[in-house]
Write a structure and sequence with these properties.
By secondary structure, the protein is of the alpha/beta class. The chain has 14 helices and 10 strands. This is Sulfotransferase.
Length: 322
Amino acid sequence: MYWTHQMCIRTRRLQPICPIDGRFGPHGQDEIPLRALQFKRGLLHEFRKGNATKEQIRLHNLVQQLPKAIIIGVRKGGTRALLEMLNLHPAVVKASQEIHFFDNDENYAKGIEWYRKKMPFSYPHQITIEKSPAYFITEEVPERIYKMNSSIKLLIIVREPTTRAISDYTQVLEGKERKNKTYYKFEKLAIDPTTCEVNTKYKAVRTSIYTKHLERWLKYFPIEQFHIVDGDRLITEPLPELQLVEKFLNLPPRISQYNLYFNATRGFYCLRFNIVFNKCLAGSKGRIHPEVDPSVITKLRKFFHPFNQKFYQITGRTFNWP
């Protein structure tokens, strides 16, 4: 059952506060103590691996819930890091893989039950979150998600647009190199050789025009249902960003500095779930970018600037992007 916008209590410039089934009971987190949920993470992990019988699932009152929040983008903005960090919260359960339900016509045709069964097992008062960065830029997705749940919370994590585009290129380049294939230099793809202007047909450039994609989403969802995460700050100072997300999702504050420790070898923050279980992101994160002609970087930043200003205006969040 999903609650309509009319059943939400709205506050000016704040997110809808909806009594969505499956988040917390009428007495808040007291329904299932968050401390108890943390101790049961290992049990949920076993169920995710498929090592559970129907009787065990029934006894533990576990369910596969549709997501109450989705990280819809942006590719190379830090979606994996955000998902893993939010999973530190004992009331959050993540879908480990990108489902690609709403952006893939073949998957979407399988129906909403197929999608639900791709979700992890959780306790009724936990919330499930999935992430598929392709959702943000795929035209059909906003309407499809709206039809599933018009009150869903939507998370968008962004980085400085030129840096994000270069990171996008770097990932594709690495894939080509693994297959011993050659690939164009970034400059040749990002700049149209005939006009010497920014090549908006290049997908890495198009993806970084955040406002163009967001405007399509706003045809279906009010801005209050979106939360913008600063992907650059999540790398250097993750806790304040995660606390903002906790507030947006109406979660009690549980992620603390204890859960995040800086790994000097990797140059990134790693995650501490408890005294025995730590986790760092995959080694593919934080790839070294190729050197790019400074004049091309300047041209791209000048191109993105007016789009960035509009993005700030729409979202109410300003970034120190050049």
